[in-house]
Design brief:
Helix content is about 70%, strand content about 0%. The protein is mostly helical and about 500 residues long. Strands 1-2 form a two-stranded antiparallel sheet.
Length: about 500
């Protein structure tokens, strides 16, 4: 006995079609032989009997007058496999269009397995016609038959059920959403003491994955979760861009993050995005904007630590404006917000304001209004918090050491500056972010103004500060990137 060829062997199918066509066999006869010999489904058999590819069939379906069906090769293949695994049930309208394209009756495209799986309403419509009657389709996808009115009602219900199946389908599962959120948490935590360029690229890739998922189809609940993840990722990209000195790019990321927060209707994310935008505006010299963004975030009534951070950022901007009373008032509100925190932050890392971070902001604000003793006390308290609970928060630690050195200069101890700055001066250039370099420059200006500025130790300290600032992350960024943030970053990706 000659063994039957395997299903899907194209050369054998083509040979059979040519042989039967040469013998004068009709397309229905070829389709039947294809089904029997190759053990394939009737819809696939009709396509092979005509010698069409999946893509060619999809194009004929999509261009069929009145079809209103947008098909592709993958979808045609799933219709052919139904009701098997990895398949999709063709609606009655799709069956009508297929029959039209193939030049056959709907019944020719169905076998017993199809009939068992089809909805009863579809079977009744198919069975109700007489040999002289045809099932046709209108341009809006409706199926026209000589059915009774009750059958029309059943058919309408089936259409609604079919749509419900589509609406329930999703291109992302709950486990995948959970993993995305976990990845966001990891990136936000690693940025506290990680390589900014590597983390920028990893964050960007994850953001692109989330954007691609949002362009697909998922239920509203899952869409909202994706928007939340996208918002935090754009917020992280905004923060990194700002630390690398590109405030224009940071502002763009911040606007997109705000849109994501609004799409998700997520107040906690909105507050964190407002905090990020306040930070960007502050370093861009738009101090009134920084205050307004901080207040906008506070109006979201967040439950986590961002409430304390927003008040600190408002104090930061007021201190830069020289408004001492407003600065102290904002710092008091930050302390009250710390007491009112409910639960923990959902992301953490960069998107969390621990006590050390809050004390860092308070110290910097007090320095600007000349309250050096308070600033020194807060810097010492913040370093104690870091050593005990947050030893890996490198950027925050560096800023606190600069604040401590500045406070020592302000109270008349410039000789102690070099010792206070030792951990900062040891930072590699890729971790010398814009906020740290700006504070180092401010310290250098203050040291130049004190009475002992020309003595050997303060003069050596100022030289060390100037040299340190010349080789910083923003400076390397500017020299390497030209006008293109993405070009520079993609050219320095050392991640695995």
């Amino acid at each position: 006995m000659i063994p039957s060829p395997k299903p899907g062997v194209k050369a054998d199918r083509d040979a059979l079609r040519h042989e039967m066509s040469s013998a004068g066999c009709s397309t229905p006869e070829i389709a039947i032989e294809m089904r029997v010999r190759f053990r394939i489904r009737p819809r696939e058999a009709w396509r092979h009997a005509l010698g069409w590819t999946l893509q060619g069939t999809a194009e004929r379906i999509s261009s069929c007058p009145g079809s209103a069906v947008a098909a592709d090769a993958s979808l045609v293949g799933k219709w052919e496999k139904w009701p098997g695994p990895s398949s999709r049930r063709p609606t009655l309208h799709v069956l009508v269009v297929l029959a039209t394209v193939y030049g056959c009756d709907v019944e020719d495209l169905l076998d017993i397995a199809d009939r068992r799986a089809l909805p009863d309403s579809d079977l009744r419509i198919i069975r109700s016609r007489t040999p002289e009657q045809a099932i046709t389709a209108t341009t809006d996808g409706a199926v026209i038959t000589p059915e009774a009115e009750s059958d029309r009602v059943v058919a309408a219900a089936t259409e609604s059920a079919t749509w419900a199946q589509w609406a329930e389908a999703t291109n992302v599962g709950d486990i995948a959403l959970e993993q995305v959120f976990a990845d966001v948490r990891t990136l936000a935590c690693q940025y506290l003491n990680g390589d900014a360029v590597v983390l920028f690229n990893r964050t960007r890739r994850l953001r692109d994955r989330v954007f691609a998922l949002l362009e697909g189809h998922q239920p509203p609940r899952q869409s909202a979760d994706l928007y939340v993840s996208a918002g935090y990722l754009c917020g992280l990209l905004a923060w990194i861009s700002s630390d690398l000195g590109n405030l224009r790019a940071a502002d763009t990321q911040g606007r997109t993050a705000w849109l994501c927060a609004e799409m998700a209707g997520h107040s906690e994310l909105s507050a964190w995005v407002a905090s990020t935008r306040s930070k960007i505006a502050f370093w861009d010299g738009r101090l009134r904007d920084a205050i307004n963004y901080a207040r906008r975030g506070t109006a979201c009534r967040p439950r986590g630590s961002v409430g304390a951070l927003l008040a600190c950022q408002e104090a930061d901007a007021w201190s830069k404006l020289g408004a001492a009373e407003e600065t102290r008032s904002a710092l008091r509100r930050a302390a009250a917000a710390r007491e009112a925190i409910v639960g923990s932050d959902e992301i953490g890392g960069l998107f969390s304001c621990n006590p050390a971070r809050q004390e860092n902001y308070a110290a910097a604000a007090h320095l600007r209004i000349g309250a050096y003793h308070e600033a020194l006390r807060e810097a010492d308290t913040a370093l104690g918090h870091l050593a005990a609970h947050y030893p890996r928060a490198g950027g925050t630690a560096a800023q606190i050491h600069v604040s401590r050195a500045t406070a020592l200069t302000g109270i008349g101890h410039p000789d102690a500056v070099m010792e206070a700055l030792a951990p900062v001066l040891a930072l590699p250039p890729e971790l010398r972010f814009a906020p740290i370099t700006e504070r180092m420059r401010d310290l250098g200006e203050l040291m130049a103004a004190v009475p002992s500025a020309t003595s050997p130790v303060p003069a050596a300290a100022r030289r060390a500060l100037n040299e340190w600032c010349l080789d910083s992350a923003p400076r390397r960024f500017a020299l390497s990137s030209g006008d293109g943030t993405a070009d520079w970053i993609s050219g320095h990706d050392h991640s695995t």
